[in-house]
Amino acid sequence: MSRLALVWTDLADDTNAKSFYQDTHIPNVVAKLGITARHAEVVEEDIFKEVPNIEGRYMTVYDVPLRNKALEIDAYIQLDDLKVPKTTKADARIYDECANWFGEEWAGHARDVQMLIIVLWQPDAAVHDEVIDWLQNDFVPGMLESPELLRTRFLKLQHASIYEDGKSKTMDTNNMYQYMTIWEFDCEDLPWEIMVYLGSSKGWRHYMEGGYMQWQMTQYLTNRTYPEDKSSNSPVAKRASIRVNSPPQGSDAESPGRNTRS
To answer: Structural domain tally of the chain?
Structure first.
């Protein structure tokens, strides 16, 4: 198991700030900690419009060894107030991995991941254990039947900080969603069979749509990996808009439906 640090930011739509962040800040973090990272951008076509999105147009994912303490990681990944506008906001969260699953096409390289779906969630206390059991023993194995799904990671929040108004402060994690799942695909289009599976999953309808879960979800397209991968097969070279594949002709697959928040 490992530790992940994620940072969501809008970078205030400032060209110089984006250049500093992508060309200097992230490479410096990667070099100092001896780790890898991926930078991604929100997909414009949101197919789950009823589900609240995660704030921040850009997301950076750092793969960090467990030996690195959360506070140490946070000190590296948060922004430098001398290099970005004070209007910039950055939400940094550090998670410990609880479990992971690999698809048949997983070759051990995060650089193969082109699309990520990030889900932040919190089940109602009354069904907490049921949801965890359903996720691990039913839902994830069913999702992995899609060959384009390379890896799924289930993580728990350990530390969080926010940078805004030119200052960084630690957040109270007790008031935040405690869990995150990351779905990593080797394709640019969300596979149609995933939509079919969501529509047919009784657990999905019961827990996710039945008001037992509070959650946010956003799709991202990887546009850069660190250390830099400039091969023709890198996500940067393959960058394109994500869309849902058209359903097969004659398909009456059910839509995943609307999320109901309690």
So the answer is: 1
